[in-house]
Amino acid sequence: MSGFQPPVFIPETAIAERVDALARRISADHAGVDDLLLVGVLRGAFIFLGDLARRLTVPCSVDFMALSSYDRGATSSEGVRLIMDVRVEIRGRHVVLVEDIVDSGDTLAFLIHTLEVRRPASLRTCVLARKRGPEGRLARLDYVGFDIPDRWVVGYGLDYDNKFRTLPYIGVVHAPDDD
Amino acid sequence: MTIDGAAAPPPVLLSERQIADRVDQLARQISADHASVDELLLIGVLRGAFIFLADLARRLTIPTTIDFMALSHYEHGSAPSGAVRLVMDLRIPIAGRSVLLVEDIVDSGETLSYLRRMLEARGPASLKICALTRKPDRLTADVRVDYVGFDIPDAWVVGYGLDFDNKFRSLPYIGILPPATKS
């Protein structure tokens, strides 16, 4: 698979422009907040978070959460488990949760519940890509980079079997049951 | 806490342009050195390395995969051995793999030396270390750093992933904190 270059779905320049626009909106929505906490969800969000954080004009801190990955074939509602929690206390803080992709929304809902019981001052969600699948959208999303069709996308942090994460653009590969 | 989040931004030590140029060079060198590797495993050390890793990884021209480790110092200060507590270990076994450990900063080098020994015990095919910054004046450990972004003076630097009390991490450049800012 290493010789395969996934075709471009969203080019680097389009991602950069969209990240700029999201950063402006998030900064405007949090004007006056003295220390916004960005919580990145590993491993997929690190590139998106790296670019987004640098473009925010409000002071911010960064922390991470890691979840168990589920086996291919399992649905996302199965076995979501916190492997690494944030290090900082979020009670009373303004928080933006940063995710790479939302599919069923179950993982995001899990994260929102996990954080909301800690009573942050505010909690908003920011995702790079939202899949337009057959199901309705369950999780609340405040900032969405791109609405994408129900295809397997890779790059810019997104992976296929942990490959292609580091592509600078978002590309498309076949779904596992296509090949 | 003596730093006001709204205070003037720290003066620039390394500009965005300088960092981007250097990251490009490092990526070319790392790609060339690993030209025959099927898949290079990049290990980012949280939290400081995530911006550097994001930029470096995208510029490599060889197939890569990513994993992360999170560390924490033991209570009662840092161990002289450089030993640290593993808050989150790798998900991927590294035996037989070509590995590049990506760090934000090398200070005394004791922690890095410990990490190198810990990872080498797992039997990777190769293990190299890439650090964005290194403070030569602070080095006490005898640890090989294969790729160094910048040798910097012994000052408190922030930005591009580096923090002071978890602040300034997301500055797009590397700035320098005047001594008076530290509490």
Radius of gyration of chain A: 16 Å
- Just give the CATH class of chain A: Alpha Beta
Helix content of chain B: 10-25%
Beta-strand residue fraction of chain A: 25-35%
End-to-end distance of chain B, in Å?
Answer: 7 Å
The secondary-structure element order of chain B is: EHEHEEEHEEEE
- SS class of chain B: alpha/beta
- Lateral arrangement of strands in the main beta sheet of chain A: 4-3-2-5-6-7
The first-level CATH class of chain B is given as Alpha Beta
- CATH fold topology of chain B: Rossmann fold
Mean pLDDT of chain A comes to: 88
- The number of distinct β-strands of chain B equals 9
* Number of structurally distinct domains of chain B: 1
What labels describe this entry?
A: 179 residues, alpha/beta, Rossmann fold, six-stranded mixed β-sheet, three-stranded antiparallel β-sheet, 3 helices, 9 strands, 22% helix, B: 183 residues
Could you give a short description of this structure?
The complex is a heterodimer of chains A (179) and B (183). Chain A is α/β, with parallel strands linked by helices and 179 residues long.
Topology:
The complex is a heterodimer of chains A (179) and B (183).
Chain A: E1 8-10, H1 12-29, E2 36-42, H2 46-55, E3 60-67, E4 82-84, E5 94-102, H3 106-116, E6 122-132, E7 143-149, E8 152-154, E9 170-173
Parallel strand pairs in A: 2-3, 2-5, 5-6, 6-7
Antiparallel strand pairs in A: 1-9, 3-4, 8-9
Chain B: E1 12-14, H1 16-33, E2 40-46, H2 50-59, E3 64-72, E4 85-88, E5 98-106, H3 110-120, E6 126-134, E7 147-151, E8 156-158, E9 174-177
Parallel strand pairs in B: 2-3, 2-5, 5-6, 6-7
Antiparallel strand pairs in B: 1-9, 3-4, 8-9
Helix pairs in contact in B: 1-2
Write structural notes for this entry:
The complex is a heterodimer of chains A (179) and B (183). Chain A has 179 residues and is of the alpha/beta class. Chain A has helices at 12-29, 46-55, 106-116; strands at residues 8-10, 36-42, 60-67, 82-84, 94-102, 122-132, 143-149, 152-154, 170-173. Chain A contains 3 helices and 9 strands. In chain A, the strands form 2 sheets. Chain A has a 6-stranded mixed β-sheet with strand order 4-3-2-5-6-7, sandwiched between helices. In chain A, helix 2 links the parallel strand 2 (36-42) and strand 3. In chain A, helix 1 crosses helix 2 (46-55). The model of chain A has no long low-confidence stretch (mean pLDDT 88). Chain B has 183 residues and is an alpha/beta fold. Chain B has helices at 16-33, 50-59, 110-120, and strands at residues 12-14, 40-46, 64-72, 85-88, 98-106, 126-134, 147-151, 156-158, 174-177. In chain B, the strands form 2 sheets. Chain B has a 6-stranded mixed β-sheet. In chain B, strands 1-9-8 form a 3-stranded antiparallel β-sheet. In chain B, helix 2 (50-59) links the parallel strand 2 and strand 3 (64-72). Chain B is globular.
